[in-house]
Structures are given as C-alpha cells and as structure tokens.
Design a protein that fits this description.
Elements lengths: L7 H11 L1 H23 L5 H21 L3 H21 L3
Helix pairs in contact: 1-2, 1-3, 2-3
Length: about 100
C-alpha cells in the first residue's frame, strides 16, 4: 500500500543522515503542525494548500517511522482491520 511518490531511498538516507531520534522528534512536530492547521480550518480559516503541505509532511514522517521500525506489514494489517470495523459500525448505524 505504499504511496508511489514516497521514495524509500530518500527516506532511508534521511534516517541515516539525521538519525532515528531526530526523525521521531520531527514526526511529533509535523503532527502538531497538522493539528494546528486543521484546528484553524474548523474555526473557518481553511487554507487548503497549507493543510496539504502539512499532510504531506506527516505522511513522509510516518513512512519514515514505519521503515525505521519495520512496521509496513503490521500497519497495513491494522488499516485493513480498522476499515473492516468502520464498515461494520456504519452498517449498524453507530456513530
């Protein structure tokens, strides 16, 4: 389920260059920036290009984390499981 735009070689070089600890810290920062952008959107200050930029940053960083911890398979399985649960909840009319 990899995004074809995410270049594993670049991701791996960034992990090696900056180190795993920095990549984790950067992930936390990027998640925070996305939260702020989405929060502003809810308050009526939607800036789609900025939100798209923050989503891209988060996707890159999450891909980095998955590669660092060798979690691709496990994350894919969790996504599959959670989407099945979501489908069932919607069928039952749950919130």
């Amino acid at each position: 389920m990899d995004n074809i735009l995410l270049d594993n070689d670049i991701i791996d070089r960034a992990i090696k260059h900056y180190g795993e600890r920095q990549r984790i810290n950067q992930t936390i920062e990027e998640l925070g920036e996305l939260i702020v952008a989405l929060s502003k959107s809810i308050r009526g200050f939607a800036n789609k290009p900025h939100i798209a930029e923050e989503i891209a940053d988060v996707e890159i960083m999450l891909h980095s984390i998955k590669r660092m911890l060798d979690l691709d398979f496990f994350v894919d399985m969790e996504i599959h499981h959670k989407l099945e649960r979501l489908t069932e909840k919607m069928k039952r009319g749950e919130i």
